[in-house]
Design a protein that fits this description.
Strand content: over 45%
InterPro entries: Beta-barrel_TonB, Beta-barrel_TonB_sf, CarboxyPept-like_regulatory, Plug_dom, Plug_dom_sf, TonB-dep_rcpt-like
Keywords: Cell outer membrane, Ion transport, Iron, Iron transport, Membrane, Receptor, Signal, TonB box, Transmembrane, Transmembrane beta strand, Transport
Distance between the termini: 42 Å
Subcellular location: Cell outer membrane
Number of domains: 2
Membrane topology: Multi-pass membrane protein
CATH topology of the largest domain: Maltoporin, Chain A
Number of helices: 6
CATH superfamily of the largest domain: TonB-dependent receptor, beta-barrel domain
CATH class of the largest domain: Mainly Beta
Pfam families: CarbopepD_reg_2, Plug, TonB_dep_Rec_b-barrel
Shape: globular
């Protein structure tokens, strides 16, 4: 704390709060008077620019007397230009009229929450994403949002990264880009390493916590990330961004946009390359990506094509570091084969269309196709040749049945479908109703090949030793509506029907037949209520039900006996209650300065039925098993607040306090004999225990100061309490809590020959803490020995490191 106070004092030392002349005001919608947060406000010829805050407020300080041209623009609205003669502090409010161009994406709007839906969400703007974006993966750009915990296999935020929201991992977080599902249809995971530098092409992100609103793709079972890529840019632009940092980290990004051509057409593009050696030994990443969009914007319709792609090669660091090496060799990597790498490419193609069918009715739809293919390569010692379909090698009296070899495990898949949304708004603006849905199909091949063997026998080049195919069809339809009963009271309702057909045919990598088929039918109702206490205070409550099908491994890793009897894992169900309070406002009464402030408080109760969790049991070939737990829950409060003084000092904090429990949990520990064959099991019963990877306390804090125009210094502080590696609440199998501070410095210049020049520095882990953010465990016992042996593995995060970036905008 002493170090923290010193840094805060240094940051605040040059604070200058005096200004001679000031120009300020609010940017609003001309038709409804609603604030337009994020509106762009520029003083032509002065090099000064500002972005309207959440309440639409903007401000320029330290302006000399004279005449100025104020230019205000906002996506979907006509630009306004005003002449200002400044002789004293002046307030100038500007109301923008909606443009005649169709710019909105109906499918995206249909799956997002609003102030009227009674759900819990956080909107992250383009500006917030840009100031956090130094080339690290997308989860790190969301680290400061409520209830979020992130981690990195390689330790530095580049390569394979993970995110948990309220303790739910990425397989329970529904991710969409422009309303199109991104989660893998089988594992339900989203691999941000396949979308490197997507943050440079994002307009905004909405993070919904809990079940949220109806959306497309795998069911939201803890949270949703609704990502929108770049919107309409009316002015042409070009940008170049380069970063360099610790662990030989480099990032090169070039972006461009045509602006609005002939008042109808737009083009945007980006090329990126990111590389890093990683904090962990040999955990390098080599990432390449592109983004391109082309749009037609008419008076009543819009047609937009979006494509983005990522190609990655990462050295495998997913084995983690054994607990006994954390003190002596934190960067230890057990893998040494030079090409022990993961190689994957994922291409996304989206075609969006929206059309005003009538003055109050509009239709939006999208077609999409996602192509994924790649493999990870492994060196394996002393493998049975028979497992790979290779005959033993006979040399005289010697028979060789085992060999060292190199294998590749492949995924080759196609994912395609369509989404739609039809939205109606009544003339009085009280009712907004949407009918939407989606159909998509996944067709994926899983196979393995041997590319080298010390004793090859009768094997072929690229000897294929297993193959199976999976086909999954997902259909959903939903209807939702908000209705304003009066000026203060609003209601929200949402009903979704979803059906899934999933088929697997073939053998897995252990030569076990995994052929099976299953159907699921889900009904997911949601309801909410909002009440406006005052013009800037709202309370809300909601209830939602979410259902989710098991993931691929729940089917393929079942014991053979269960599959033979037709026993299949059950779907999970979540009953989610949310209640909260929102306050957003501005005042001049705080310290005498123009102050913007916000407070958000939320209570949640997430009641799970048949949640799938690890039990400690193994299947016939040693793969860990999950089983349905009848009763488990998460409950807690989330607090978030911010205060901004004259855009000179900003302080924001959020805090999650939660209780995450499983009732009546049974754990299985295997007992092995001297030949490491299973001799028996021990079962441990728990009446109530903690859900793994669910810290009871998570907080994030930011103190940012702007002592001079264009220069910002921010201290970021993150705290995460202890987490358990399994579901037994054992102190022997846990991740210790940690507190980490980052320092971010940004200086923006606006010379006459450039639109913007930015120099930024990010110092991660400022106080050089040693900590781990993720891990895993397994336990064993041996015949005749009552001792339980725990094997804990961790993912150490990097000690103090930096990223320096230079950005140029034309």
């Amino acid at each position: 704390m002493k170090k923290l106070c010193i840094v805060m004092a240094v940051l605040l030392l040059p604070l200058q709060l005096l200004a001679q002349f000031k120009l300020s005001g609010r940017i609003t919608d001309a038709s409804g008077g609603n604030a337009l947060p994020g509106a762009n406000v520029v003083l032509d010829g002065s090099g000064n620019g500002a972005t309207a805050g959440q309440d639409g407020y903007y401000e320029f300080r330290n302006l000399a007397a004279g005449k100025y041209t104020l230019r205000v623009s906002y996506l979907g609205y006509a630009q306004v230009v005003r002449q200002v003669s400044l002789q004293a502090d002046t307030q100038l409010d500007v109301a923008l009229a909606q443009t005649t161009h169709r710019t909105g994406e109906v499918v995206i709007s249909a799956t997002r929450a609003s102030e009227k839906t009674g759900t819990t969400f956080t909107n992250v703007s383009k500006e917030e994403i840009q100031e956090r974006n130094f080339g690290q993966d997308l989860p790190y750009l969301l680290e400061q949002t409520p209830s979020v915990v992130v981690n990195s296999d390689a330790g530095a935020g580049v390569g394979y990264t993970g995110i948990r929201i309220r303790g739910s991992d990425i397989t329970r977080i529904n991710v969409t880009v422009n309303g199109i599902p991104i989660n893998d249809a089988e594992s339900h995971g989203t691999f941000f390493v396949n979308m490197p530098d997507l943050g440079s092409s994002i307009q905004d992100i909405q993070v919904q916590r809990g079940v949220g609103t109806s959306t497309n793709g795998a069911g939201a079972f803890g949270a949703s990330l609704n990502i929108r890529t770049l919107g309409l840019n009316r002015e042409a632009y070009a940008e170049a961004l380069n970063s360099v940092g610790s662990f030989n980290t480099w990032r090169h990004t070039v972006s461009f946009g045509s602006g609005l051509i002939k008042d109808k057409f737009t083009f945007d593009g980006r090329l990126s390359k990111i590389s890093s050696d990683g904090y962990v030994d040999r955990a390098f990443s080599d990432l390449k990506s592109y983004y391109f969009s082309a749009g037609y914007h008419g008076k009543t319709g819009m047609l937009k094509f979006v494509t983005f792609s990522g190609k990655e090669q990462t050295y495998q660091a997913w084995n983690g570091v054994p607990q006994d090496k954390l003190e002596t060799d934190r960067t230890y990597n057990s893998l040494t084969y030079e090409n022990e790498t993961d190689n994957y490419q994922q291409d996304h193609y989206q075609l969006h269309y929206s059309k005003d069918l009538a003055s109050r009715l509009n239709l939006g739809g999208a077609f999409f196709y996602t192509r994924g293919r790649g493999y990870y390569e492994q060196y394996k010692e002393n493998q049975k040749l028979s497992k790979y379909g290779i005959s033993p090698v006979v040399l005289g009296d010697t028979t060789i049945s085992r060999s060292d070899l190199i294998r590749q495990k492949w995924l080759d898949n196609h994912f395609y479908g369509a989404t739609y949304a039809l939205t109606y708004t009544d003339e009085a603006g009280k009712l907004e109703a949407t009918l939407g849905g989606a159909w998509n199909k996944y067709d994926g091949d899983h196979y393995g090949e041997v590319i080298w063997a010390r004793y090859a026998s009768n094997s072929e080049i690229r000897q294929r030793y297993y193959f199976n195919n999976a086909i999954k069809t997902d259909f959903n339809i939903f209807g939702k509506a908000t209705y304003q009963l009066n000026e203060k009271l609003g209601l929200f309702g949402d009903l979704q029907y979803r059906t899934i057909n999933y088929e697997i045919e073939g053998e897995d990598d252990n030569n076990i037949n995994v052929t099976q088929q299953v159907d699921y039918h889900f009904i997911n109702p949601k309801a909410g209520i909002t009440y406006e206490l005052t013009s800037n205070q709202t309370v809300y409550a909601s209830y939602a039900v979410g259902n989710r099908e098991p993931v691929r491994s729940d089917f393929t890793d079942q014991p053979l006996a269960d599959r033979t009897r037709g026993v299949q894992p059950e779907a999970e169900t979540l009953y989610n209650w949310e209640a909260g309070y929102r306050l957003h406002g501005s005042s001049t009464a705080i310290l005498g300065y123009n102050t913007r402030y916000s407070v958000d408080a939320n209570y949640f109760f997430m009641d799970y039925k048949n949640q799938l969790v690890l039990t400690g049991q193994l299947n016939d070939v040693g793969s860990p098993l999950r089983t349905n737990i009848k009763d488990s829950y998460r409950t807690g409060i989330e607090l978030a607040g911010s205060v901004n003084l004259n855009d000179v000092v900003e302080l924001s904090s959020n805090l999650n306090l939660s209780r995450n429990k499983i009732r009546n949990y049974n754990e299985t520990v295997y007992i092995y004999d001297e030949n490491y064959s299973v001799e028996g099991t021990t079962e441990n019963k728990y009446s109530e225990t903690d859900i793994s990877f669910s810290p009871a306390v998570v907080s994030a804090h930011k103190l940012e100061v702007q002592p001079v125009k264009g220069f910002k210094a921010a201290l970021l502080y993150k705290t995460v309490s202890k987490q358990y590696l399994d579901n037994t609440s054992s102190e022997d199998r846990k991740i210790n809590g940690y507190q980490v501070a980052d320092l971010r410095l940004r200086y923006i210049l606006k010379p006459s020959f450039l639109r913007e020049l930015e120099v930024a520095l990010l110092v991660n882990n400022l106080f050089n803490k040693k900590y781990e953010a993720n891990g895993y465990t397994f336990s064993e016992q041996y015949a005749g020995d009552p001792t339980r042996y725990d094997y804990n593995y961790y993912y150490p995060q990097a000690t103090r490191n930096f990223l320096l970036s230079l950005g140029v905008k034309f």
